[in-house]
Design goal:
Blueprint lengths: L6 H51 L9 H4 L20 H8 L13 E6 L8 E10 H11 L9 E3 L7 E7 L1
Antiparallel strand pairs: 1-2, 2-4, 3-4
Length: 173
């Protein structure tokens, strides 16, 4: 008598393997959706902290010209209303000293950066927080869900067209 698998046993094994593949793929999608949600919440939380700081001190963090007086040893900004490149490193520090954040968070794809710039629309962009190392397709999803979905217009903009490579996603503050 030959020993081997029947067609029914092989079919059951193939069904189990198929179910495992579906579960793994579904799990990867859930993880990616969680990363997208975290990035969006981070941007929104940073935006809230940035404006809460402004409401309390009357100047933006990083640009605050009285930060050095308020917190001895802290670097003050120039108070021009924009986070200039030289002031960007102090945004987190000012928000930390003010109690608006508890350390510099690391994004789910890369780091967060601050600054001000004029690009995209006719009216410029102003102060921003940016997330680095974000895959283009993820940046596009965030832009479509929270803004206009176009990489170079609106209050959410990409550093270049939303392609499969990574880019910096700018979120207007």
């Amino acid at each position: 008598m030959r020993k081997g698998f029947t067609l029914v046993e092989l079919a059951i094994v193939l069904i189990v393997i198929g179910l495992i593949i579906v579960i793994v793929l579904r799990g990867q999608g859930l993880v990616e959706n969680a990363r997208i949600s975290k990035l969006t919440r981070d941007f929104q939380g940073i935006q809230a902290a940035f404006y809460s700081y402004y409401d309390r001190y009357g100047m933006y963090p990083g640009d605050d010209s009285t930060a050095g007086t308020r917190w001895p040893g802290e670097v003050s900004g120039n108070g021009n209303g924009y986070v200039d490149p030289g002031e960007a490193p102090y945004v987190w520090s000012h928000m930390l000293k003010g109690g608006y954040v508890q350390g510099m968070p690391r994004g789910p794809y890369g780091n967060y950066i601050f600054g001000s710039m004029n690009f995209g629309s006719t009216y410029g962009f102003g102060n921003f927080v940016g997330g680095t190392g974000i895959p283009g397709n993820i940046a596009e999803q965030i832009d479509k869900k929270n803004d206009d979905g176009v990489y170079n217009t609106g209050y959410i903009q990409g550093s270049r067209a939303y392609t499969l490579d990574t880019l910096t996603l700018y979120w207007k503050l």
